[in-house]
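W.,

You were right to be curious about this one. When I first looked at the sequence I had no strong expectations either way, so I just let the prediction run and decided to look at it fresh. Below is the sequence, 414 residues in total, followed by the output.
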Amino acid sequence: MTDQIRMLSSLFESFFQELRIRTCESPLSLHESQLPDYGLRSIVSLQPDPLLPEIPPSSESESHLVMITDHFLCHYIALTYAGMDHLLLIGPYQLAVPTTKDILQIFRSLEGAAIRLSSLRSGFEDIPLVTDAYMLEAYLRASIRTVFPSSSIHFHEISLQSGTGVRPVLQPEEDDKSPERLQALDQRYHIEQEMIEAVERGDLESAQRKLSLLGRAGLRSRSGSTVRDAKDYLIIINTLCRRAAFKAGIHPYYIDRLSGKLNLQIENCVSYQDMQRLQLQSKIIRQYCMLIRNQSTAGFSPAIRKVMNYISIHENEPLTLSGIAQATGMNRGYLSGLFHKETGETLTDYLHARKIRNAIFLMNTGRTNISEIASLCGFDNVNYFTRLFGKVKGMPPTAYLKMLEGGRETLRSE
């Protein structure tokens, strides 16, 4: 149970970190002043400081998810699940950019506080914006049910806006009972699962088809910025694909490298037209599917997965059977036999095939110097590389380059 709680907490922390939303652990009861923020609450001292109702401890068969709205129209999520004796507190975030009318109403509600309107307005600038609350709730629900499939999820809401001095009441969230909303969330959850399963298989066509449905199912945008709305949506897609890649047996080294590169491309876009021009939505799905096709170790024993992951990380270095056996803590003969038994090929043939595939990739992306390509693929001897390339491809590398120049073959990932 402890491992499951740790895994789910880590999953949520990674997800919200990519949305730039903070997560922390808190006691089951807390005052409003203890809610984390970006300095907004420090602008004014709220009197009195409301005590939030204590959230019931979760048993092994139930989880509690509480949506909190504070005096500043900031939102938080408090979670307990499967026997946790504390809260995972997520926030703050905004569901919409505050209008001038919103800020004026907040300012008037703080009557008597020594505060400038301009200070209150600037306090909102660093708070992350979430443009799709339904997507957020669906993700939380799906994640909890994945780790704790038999757990019932209880949704509640707390609003601190209506009247200082009145202790807020923990109550079930009314909107969650709406048949339309439940149907939309359920539909979105199933589409998400189908998309993740397609990515996990490396099935690009099915994944892109599900992605197009996901963009229309159960969404209600609340964004004040089209660009931020689009960026947050792409970050969520990237996070879902990360989860699929991990389930497919991809080493975290490759997942983090690809995820970081994609997030950087997302954040570097300055307009919605940039994202359309780069086709980032399709690119995310395509690159994860290609990563899984090329790097997946699912279906192999832990020992062979460890070997494959080691080779993947060091494939552009000179590698030998003895060196790999020593690095992975296995006997040379045992490793050789086990690898052939599980993969149907020798470890040496597997190494050669990966190196030649990497060489082909380099050739298809513009490299033409054979000596340089051999070196980049971990070959000390260019003549040995040339002989091996001819054995695998049926032609020397120079002939393959001429064929590419003639336009008769393009980059293949299989």
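Here's what jumped out at me. Residues 162-167, 216-224, 408-414 have pLDDT under 50 and may be disordered. And, maybe more interesting for your project: The longest strand covers residues 62-69.

Coffee later to discuss?

I.
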